Amino acid sequence: MDWVKSLVGYYRLIEIATGDDAMEVMFKRADALAGELGTDGFIPDAMLPMLTRRPAQAKKIADRLAKTGLWVRVRGGYMIVDWASINAELKKLQDKKKRDRDRKRASRAAGHDTDQSEDVSADAGADGHEESLYESERESKRETTAAAAAVARAAAAPVDNAPKTLDLPPAVEILRAALDAHKLTVRWDKLTAEHLAEIERLVDLHGDSRLVHAAKASYRPDRPAVFAQAWLAAWQALPSPGTPLHAVPAPPCDEPGHSGTTKHCVQCASEAKGVDPAATRSRRSRA
Predict the structure, then answer these.
(1) Shared domain check, 157 and 49
(2) Could you read off the pLDDT of 173-192 as tens digits, one per residue?
(3) Does 20 share its domain with 88?
(4) Is-contact 64 177, C-beta < 8 A?
(5) Mind spelling out the 3-state secondary structure of the chain?
């Protein structure tokens, strides 16, 4: 369909009023997309990025809409709550206009409209406008049917080629939330099964806080991480808990003739006090 019904007071809904702008943009764009696709309110996962100005955050925004109750998570995407019932009257009106149009065409084709020439000419302008409007709608439906078919083919493709959803293991999801809380937001949709298993192992070994601290320590403002696997090397390099620390010997004193180290040197200490170390050793030997 070329248009959908929109509640004029939608912005007063508590879920929209207390949400952010990204949620409102996705909510309204999805409303239009559902009408364009003719899916009775179903929004495929693959089409979420086009519903926001921040495509990388599309899944998170959709999940927030689902938490408010405006959407419901279903297999392969989301369903807009009450979309079909809100637009039911519009669909009935469109169906009625289509029946009227078909009846008039059939009547003209059978020659039954000869005695109604005055009525036909009276509404010719309006009927012509209606024909143009519905021709536009038919063209739009052909385009959206092709788009819906493409989405269906993508959904039926092998798992390796299907768009990855962020169904992360619980331990990884908790780590992701902790990183997001520190504004360390990256993409997690490119992680392989091996990556996820390794991150779970590291969480179990080090705990969330230590991994978040390591990610913060490796953060570079000029080149921030884009994918979660960028932190894997830093996390894997962390020493295991309980690993003893080894003493690091201090380097030797770089003063000529001194035998101590940079942290402890008898000659340096004596010179600082104004005492000749050689004279001190001579007096000690005579004693």
Answers:
(1) yes
(2) 888 888 888 888 888 888 88
(3) yes
(4) no
(5) CCCCCCCCCHHHCHHHHCCCHHHHHHHHHHHHHHHHHCCCCEEEHHHHHHHCCCHHHHHHHHHHHHHHCCEEEECCEEEECCHHHHCHHHHHHHHHHHHHHHHHHHHHHCCCCHHHHHHHHHCHHHHHHHHHHHHHHHHHHHHHHHHHHHHHHHHHCCHHHCCCCCCCCHHHHHHHHHHHHCCCCCECCCCCHHHHHHHHHHHHHHCHHHHHHHHHHCCCCCCCCCEHHHHHHHHHCCCCCCCCCCCCCCCECCCCCCCCECCCCHHHHHHHHCCCHHHHHHHHHHC
Say if residue 83 is in the same domain as residue 180.
no
Judgement on whether residues 80 and 148 belong to the same structural domain of the protein? yes
| Region 164-170 average pLDDT | 71
Domain count for the chain, please give it.
2
Residue type, position 41, single letter: G
Q: In which domain, by residue range, is 203 found?
A: 170-236
In a shared domain, residues 135 and 87: yes
Rounded-to-integer distance, Cα 177 and Cα 183, Å: 10
What's the pLDDT tens digit per position in 68-113? 888 999 988 999 887 777 777 766 777 777 788 888 888 888 765 5
151 and 200, same domain (yes or no): no
Written as six digits, the tokens of 10 are: 């939608």
- Of 117, 133, 162, the position where a domain reaches its end is 162
Look at residues 122, 140, 162 and tell me which one is the last residue of a structural domain: 162
Specify which residues 74 forms β-bridges with: 77
* Domain shared by 210 and 114, yes or no: no
Cβ atoms 145, 151 nearer than 8 A: no
pTM over 0.70: no
